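Contributing new records

If you add data, match the layout below exactly. Sequence lines come first and carry their own label; structure lines follow with theirs. Keep one chain per record. Anything else will be rejected by the validation script.
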Amino acid sequence: MDISINDDFFYKLVEAVVKRLKSTEEKKSDKWLTPTEAMIRLNIKSRTTLAKLRDNESILFTQYSKKSILYDAASIEKFLDSKIRKPLDD
């Protein structure tokens, strides 16, 4: 069984597939944050504070070489959510 499609449709289909793959790739790259990105999300200015959060296991990280550390975005969000406080009644 042969299936034939015209050139115009074929190229539109290829463009749509490429666009979909790129958007999926971008979503995956949001999982890991650089130390600077993590500090911005946590609203901290000190790498020492970031290291303390990492060392006491408040946030997850991966270390693929001695100086290359990436932080898990979901664990940072979970950590921040755990710090939500209800306002005091006046």
